[in-house]
Amino acid sequence: MTEREDLLVGNFPIVPKQKRAQQKRKALLESGRILFIDKGYEQTTAKDIAAHAGVATGTFYRYFSDKRQLLMSLLEDRIEEFFPPEPSWSTPDPVSLLAKMLEEHGKRLNKLGLHRVLQELLPKDPELAEAISAARRKIQTRIYSGLKQAFEKGWTWKDLDFDTVSWSIMTLVENAHEKEVQGGGHVDYYQLAKVICRMVFPPEVHKE
Amino acid sequence: MTEREDLLVGNFPIVPKQKRAQQKRKALLESGRILFIDKGYEQTTAKDIAAHAGVATGTFYRYFSDKRQLLMSLLEDRIEEFFPPEPSWSTPDPVSLLAKMLEEHGKRLNKLGLHRVLQELLPKDPELAEAISAARRKIQTRIYSGLKQAFEKGWTWKDLDFDTVSWSIMTLVENAHEKEVQGGGHVDYYQLAKVICRMVFPPEVHKE
Amino acid sequence: MTEREDLLVGNFPIVPKQKRAQQKRKALLESGRILFIDKGYEQTTAKDIAAHAGVATGTFYRYFSDKRQLLMSLLEDRIEEFFPPEPSWSTPDPVSLLAKMLEEHGKRLNKLGLHRVLQELLPKDPELAEAISAARRKIQTRIYSGLKQAFEKGWTWKDLDFDTVSWSIMTLVENAHEKEVQGGGHVDYYQLAKVICRMVFPPEVHKE
Amino acid sequence: MTEREDLLVGNFPIVPKQKRAQQKRKALLESGRILFIDKGYEQTTAKDIAAHAGVATGTFYRYFSDKRQLLMSLLEDRIEEFFPPEPSWSTPDPVSLLAKMLEEHGKRLNKLGLHRVLQELLPKDPELAEAISAARRKIQTRIYSGLKQAFEKGWTWKDLDFDTVSWSIMTLVENAHEKEVQGGGHVDYYQLAKVICRMVFPPEVHKE
DNA sequence: CATGAATGAGCTTTCATTCAT
DNA sequence: GATGAATGAAAGCTCATTCAT
């Protein structure tokens, strides 16, 4: 991760040591986050962010080399938060556990709020796209191995296609959050968890 | 749909009558499509499109009032193509049929290629977002009633949550295409179809 | 006048001989006049004029080298109409005669309607400005000599300043029309004529 | 007037506080004035003005929302200066006083120099036209009542038409300045004053 | 001759970024 | 360090004029 982060964020203005400066930096980050979410990345200008943070335009550039870098800093170490943790299957009630996890993940994404902004950027920023892609692959790999373990314990469908199923789980989990945002009715996380479990386990295992 | 489409596209420069002009218009549309896909919507300028089509900037504005309208023309009457047809369950081999449908849908999307562009635009263009949303709702409604019929015939899980499952199917189908694009290996449409069927039918029905 | 006109109009497209062509030319002139008056010179495009005249854009340029030349043709031989004829003083009732002349001049200007357009152009077109200026000088000279004759007959004030008075008459007459247009109440031409006569004749002459 | 002025000028970029900025603003205003007078309003671009003021294009837009607003700032609180003060008749030597007033007004107009520019704008800018019109009405009303007072004191012609005469005075005074500009020889303000007085007073009053 | 599509210079305006104070 | 005025490249769009048909 570290290498990738460095790549993304660059090492431009050394994170300043003073308290004051730290506060300004934080204010800028927070203003950036708010405005990006509110108006979109492209529609938000450096001037806007500076004004919202109560500093001068020029100050923006003391802390960030440009708008992109601010966004990257916002994302720093958090890209993984955009993706769900791997579900745990070795539990008496995987459906409830999964439901809970889904809900928490949804909340986390809503709190970050940058989901949309990322989508806006992907076409323009191959580097970011690659970072996202890497994070996604990483998670999917974890899900994959989780599935494999469950398989080895004989819990899953015998013909489980790890690849397809792990991808399906990822996809549903990632999009559950969007569904909620779009106001297309709230997601019933429990039902979704059930559906996911059906993709993985044959019915007889459920009773276990 | 037709009314909404008209709304989106407007009736700006009447589609010209001459052959030549038609060719230029087509060239512009095609150049727009290529550049939008290649560089993203925001990064593509009217000038770029004109240059790529081998015409002068002003010519662009003969045929389209602006970039957005070109995109809308590109989308005209095609919004529904972005969404899958509803799967049919009443068939001897729903998995294969579904797999075939998924593949065809993926091909169609790849041919259009505008999937990403749409995503870039959605946050900024509420009108488009609404059109997309309507199309999506329409399809999902169809899937929903398909499920209901299957349920009434007693084929599905007894506790099927139509809403959650129809949404899950939509989501997987919509994203299958993306998986392919991202180069994460080809999608195994057959496996995906199997997973979807497992969300819907209990195993004993599969044998039927 | 001829030389000046040639200067203004240029000798670009030889006035065409055919009837058809003549009609198109006239239609263009008339459309130009209407649109110039309605929207102003700058706001009217060659395309507008052609469309209004029911011909193609290119046709415009067959008859006129450009927008300016159309305007000049509109003005051709008419610049003098923008200015009043010299008043005649040797008449039993100069006030009534003058009043009548003022009214007729006002009507003529309203009919042409290009007064405003000229004003719009003067700053940009020194050549036109010069032509206007020359025409004005010409009229003023006539008024001047009319006054001189009246003076020599002993009718006017003994200390009449020909220059000032002829200029004043010109100015009032030229602006009377504008007053009417601006809707600042109709001009009472008879009262205006009386005022002008008082500038010229002492009261005892009036009784004559 | 103040309200109307505020309306015209808007309150776009708050007049900046720093000295430097004030200078740039002034430089832009002055450059605008010069170029408007020299080339006309329409022929002058924002870029021209910026270049003439020695600043970048973008700087223009820091201080003015557009060309029009610059002109409006140039006019701010000055519209009345374009019109003469009302003449005073109750004085031992109204002719000389009037002559002096005319000359001063002429000088003031020449200093502003924007007379022509206004004329260019009037047809296109109804708001400005209304402001001008209001100012003109105001002055004319004052002249009107001045005449009425003189009439009541028995100084004027018995059949004085206040309306026509006040309009005539306005018109002559407004245009006197133009005469000078057009290089038709300097205006003899004294002679003009005499002419105006003859419009108002019968000869026997002059001796008083 | 007529047509109207095509051209491209040029105008307005915005905004990321710099730099004098 | 902080400030915010200044910069100028670049985007969107218009329109006088040309030219292939």
TrEMBL record, chains A, B, C, D:
Residues 45-64 bind DNA. SUPFAM superfamilies: Homeodomain-like, Tetracyclin repressor-like, C-terminal domain. Keywords: DNA-binding. GO terms for molecular function: DNA-binding transcription factor activity; transcription cis-regulatory region binding. It comes from the Bacteria. Coiled coil: none annotated. The keyword Glycosyltransferase does not apply. It holds the Pfam family TetR_N. Residues 22-82 form the HTH tetR-type domain. Gene3D superfamilies: Tetracycline Repressor, domain 2. PANTHER family: HTH-TYPE TRANSCRIPTIONAL REGULATOR PKSA, HTH-TYPE TRANSCRIPTIONAL REGULATOR RUTR. This is TetR/AcrR family transcriptional regulator. It comes from Neobacillus thermocopriae. The lineage of its organism: Bacteria, Bacillati, Bacillota, Bacilli, Bacillales.
